[in-house]
Write a structure and sequence with these properties.
Length: about 120
Amino acid sequence: MKKIILLFSHTLTEPQVKELKENWNCDKIIYMPNELKNNWMNVVDDVDINQFKKFLLDNLQKGDYVLIQGEWGLTYNMVNFAKENDFIPLYAGTMRKVTEYKEGDKVIKNSVFSHTSFKKYGG
């Protein structure tokens, strides 16, 4: 069985947890501690990327997974770091359903995202 770390600002839904267990063989899902999660969600220009790298190195073994979604530059760097260290980076695929309606002189747009499946970065 494998582990997965979530470099991800959301809490997984039950179907997502089920997919990780059944389709990806994950028996342990590791969320970031609150301080680290806050730093991931609120990226500043001088963010210390090493805090995220250390968290992966301290908690994963080769062949384990890491779900990476967030600020583009940080995500790009962490996907590369994961690959360099033989971790398997994943992202959550979604389907978006958009509805729009007019309310006076305004257009109200509502987007609902539904999970489709987890996918490996780079195929």
